[in-house]
Amino acid sequence: MNYKRTPDAILIGYKKVATTSLRNMFSLHPEINWSRKAHYFISAEFDEMDSEKYLSQFENEVTPCFIDMFEGLSIGMIHSQKNVQDRLDFVPGESFENYHIEPNPSEVAFRIKKVIPDAKIIIMIRNQEDWLRSYYLHHINDCPEYKRGFTDFLNTIEGKSALNAGLYNYHIESYFKLFGKENVHVILIEKLKTEQEKTMRCLCEFLNISFHPVTGDSVQKNKGRGTMNGNLVRLLSGFGISDRFIAKVRPALEPLRGYAMRNSYFQKIINKDVINKSEKYMINSFYSASNFHTSKLLGVNLKKFGYPL
User: Fold this and answer.
1) How much is the mean pLDDT over the chain?
2) Looking at the structure, do residues 249 and 206 belong to the same domain, yes or no?
3) Residue 270: enclosing H or E segment and its boundaries?
4) Which of 73, 103, 242, 280 has the least C-beta neighbours within 10 A?
5) Mean pLDDT of 241-263
């Protein structure tokens, strides 16, 4: 069946790269509507020969620009078996062979092309050190108790997939080749933060819609778990204190919170970066070549925006 309306654009992510803010900007634009149903492209239910169930959801859409999205598309963990849990066991050292998934972002690009060949693609990226820090803090409580360090996380299935996804040049190039460079728009979160109006004007031009200004105050943001909370989790876990015990005694400890927040020694501990010096060195070494090629692909000096080169 040929549907009259399919998504005009697909936002593939990345996760933890201000996609919540971008979604809210979309909601404030009178010519845009959006949904988060694109997880279809990584699900075991995907069938390129029978995508009617997915496409039928959009047949009554009338807005000038309709965007479907799922930030997890950028990570590219494709499920090969139905009815498996989306959330993985965050056990350091686990092998992909123990799960019904395959980390393959390029295959996600092929799947989108097969179902919506004329779609425009939106990709948001962030310098890898800040991105992996935020991604790790988002999942820190998913890691096993007493194994919640940054390196522990990177050694989980989710962490390994994130490391792979951070090689931006390979994934961007896949979309360039399949959809054409003119149909792929890459947004740097660093530019969105410092040049919001200019960045959004460029996006609206890419989507062939008029620019609609929004103020920073009107855009809802997802702040996520900060360094302070992440360090508290790591600190208590390091002392062998279980999550269950923490939940039990939290009300009794609440009166001590104010004192702890005013203690300079405690402040130093909980505000310490969750990524240590050697881990930062690893990140910079691992991504420098990829960022060199990404800079050439985009025609942008990524070093200027804090990306390791």
Assistant:
1) 87
2) no
3) helix 264-270
4) 242
5) 73
